Amino acid sequence: MKNHGRRIFQTLCLAAAALLVFGASALAAERISINGSTTVLPISQILAEAYMDEYPDVNISISGGGSGNGIRALVDGTTDIAQSSRWIRQSEVENAINNGHYPVPFAVALDAIIPVVHPDNPVDNLSLDQLKAIYEGKVRNWKDVGGEDRSIAVISRDSDSGTYAVWNEVALKGARPTPRAQLLASNGAIVQEISGNRNAIGYIGIGYLTENLKAVSLDGVAPSYANAASGDFPVSRTLWFFTDDWPKGETLKFIRYALHPEKGQKLVKETGYVPLY
C-alpha cells in the first residue's frame, strides 16, 4: 500500500510539474488579431506565417470580411490591427474616438484596382468613360465597346468593401452601379465568377490577378506592376494597417516586421502587390 501511495504521489507531482511548464508556456504566448479587407488579406497571411515561423510563441489570427468590418472591429476594440484597402472615413474616426480608441495608420503596400474580363473576351482596353457607362448600365452590350454582340454582366463589390469605395470614387466618379450589378463579398468571389462567365466584367486588386482572367487597360495604360508602383494606372491606391493608438509590444514588432525592406516588404512583392520600397 505504501508503494502504491508513493507511486500515486509521484504521478501527481509529475502531472503538476507538466501543468506548470506547459501552462507557463501557454500564458507566455502572445496573440495578435487582424481583421478586415480581403484585398489586404494575402499580405497579412504571408506576413503572419513568416512572423510566426520566426517567433513561434506568437499566435496571429486573421479574418476578412471587408475594410469596413475591420475598422468597426478596431472601433469596438475587438482587433489589434484593421487591414483596409481604403482610407478611414471621418465618421469612423469620430466613432473610434467616442469609444476611446485612436486609429493610427501604417501604409503597408501599393495596389491597382484592375478591371478584369474572361480570357475569351476580345476587349482589352476601355476608356474611363466607357467603364463608367458600363457600370452605370448605360452600355449593356460588349459590341458597343469593341467586343462581341453579347450582353454585359456587371460584377461589383458590396458597399462595405474598401475596394468598392475607391472604385466608386475614382472609376465611377461617385456614380452608383446599376441595380443590375451582381454584388460579391470578396476579391476571390469575383475571380471565380469572372473566370467562369464570358460575358462578365469585374474588378480586383492586382495581387488577385490570375491566368484565368484578362486584365483590361484603362485609357491605354496597362495594369502592370510598374504602372501600379508609379501610380500611372488610373485606379491606384495605398493599402493600410490601422492600429488603436501607437502600437505596443508584439503588435509593434509585427508592424515593424511588415514594413522592413528586407523582410515584410519582400513578402509583399511575393503576393503580387507593390512594396513600399
Protein model, in words:
The chain has 277 residues and is of the alpha/beta class. The chain folds into two domains: 2-109 and 239-270, D-Maltodextrin-Binding Protein, domain 2; 111-236, 3-Layer(aba) Sandwich (D-Maltodextrin-Binding Protein, domain 2). 40% of the residues lie in helices and 22% in strands. It has ten helices and eleven strands. The chain has helices at residues 2-28, 41-54, 67-76, 90-98, 128-136, 162-170, 187-195, 225-230, 249-259, 264-270, and strands at 30-36, 58-63, 81-84, 103-117, 125-126, 153-157, 182-184, 200-205, 214-215, 217-218, 236-244. Helix 3 (67-76) packs parallel to helix 4 (90-98) and helix 9 packs across helix 10. The radius of gyration is 24 Å and the shape is globular. The termini are far apart. The model is unreliable at 1-27 (pLDDT under 50).
Q: What are the segments in which pLDDT stays under 50 over at least 5 consecutive residues?
A: 1-27
Mean pLDDT equals 89
In CATH, the homologous superfamily of the largest domain goes by the name Periplasmic binding protein-like II
Total number of helices: 10
Largest sheet: 9 strands, mixed
Q: What oligomeric state is this? A: single chain
**Radius of gyration, whole Å:** 24 Å
The CATH topology of the largest domain corresponds to D-Maltodextrin-Binding Protein, domain 2
